[in-house]
Amino acid sequence: MAQSVGTNRRRFIKGLAATAAGAVGLPYFVPSSVLGGGAGTAPSERIVMGFIACGKQSQHLMRSFLNSPGTQVVAACDVDRLKLERGKGIVEGHYKGKGQADARCDTYADFRDLLARADIDAVVISTPDHWHALTVIAAARAGKDIYCEKPLSQTIGEAREMVNAVREYGRVFQVGSMQRSDWHFRVGCELVLNGYIGELRTIKVGVGGPPEDRPLEPMPVPDYLDWDMWVGPAMWHPYHTELSPHLSWDGFPHWRSHSYYGGGGMTDWGAHHFDIAQWAMGMDESGPAEIIPPDGKDVKNLTYKYATGVTMTRESANGVFFEGTQGKVETNRGHLKTWPDELKDVKLKPNDVHLYECRNHYVDFLDAMRKRTKPVCDIETGARSVSVCHLGNIAYQLKRPLKWDPVKEEFPGDAEANRMLRRAYRAPWHI
Question: What is the pLDDT of residues 106-131, one digit of tens each?
């Protein structure tokens, strides 16, 4: 078993979490060995990692972190035994291919058992969305740094609880909104943020719509799946393959279409594209002031209004489209187009705002761990971006305009809307 980079630091962490409400991990000093890394990293200097969930996205992340310098993956967890075995095979096959036949990946059915291991420095969480808050908060209390897939949370209230826990326990946190590590988005946002298209007036964002719950007939639970644990804190629903497919994949996790477990296309792609819109507006720690759902008459698209005067709409845009008084920018994965065309070749001036330049989302997280700095998509950023998605879903559900206070994170004087900031958890789960 590889030795953890944090062996010395854990002398300062008492009572590691054995339950979701487990003991508190304390902020710690960082030994000089953790600042190492790279090929041939000594076992005592490696970042030791565990994976919570082993589905398709997690398997992609496993390969990415396994191929990142200075890491050792030692554990994986999933409520689906077949996915867990697949994840274990990926990890052990990687090390066997490098001549490390003795490198073992231990497996767990309960994330709390993985978090109780004192040798693990960081966890990668890619569970369904309704599990993010509980696993993140438990991991922070257990003294782990965290990489968590987007969308960050299932509710706005959860997102704030997650930020509070990560800050309280001094953890490094990277949200899997990896478009922040794509230069097409970064350059596009820099052009907007620095006024190269003049005063920003409108933003069009191409994302999916809200969840659309529909009846699903109960099906027999496969013998390889702990369905009660899969549902966890969410509203109970009998098993159906649409909610927890085995290893099939057609590009979209269909459980996200059901509001018990996800936020539809609004949170799926919204956690990417609304995130970029917020970045270009300098709104990483803020949000809109008003949300207006389409009414079939005067308002054709979901509309967000910001205190700055910018209007953002959800429609069939190619990624994110910014329009200013003197130019336009359109950015998407592998795509950057500007009007005028030469705008895309502008070189920023020394006094311009230069956004965080990141070339590899995974290595950025590892580097931030070693330096104890914020990565390119810190948890506060993820919380604000997913809040934009949830605000849209709440407006869709209530079918009326909403006022929003991004400082207090509440709907002023609107008790009905404020009740939708949180959801009750199914017993015995709680934060």
Answer: 999 999 999 999 999 999 999 999 99
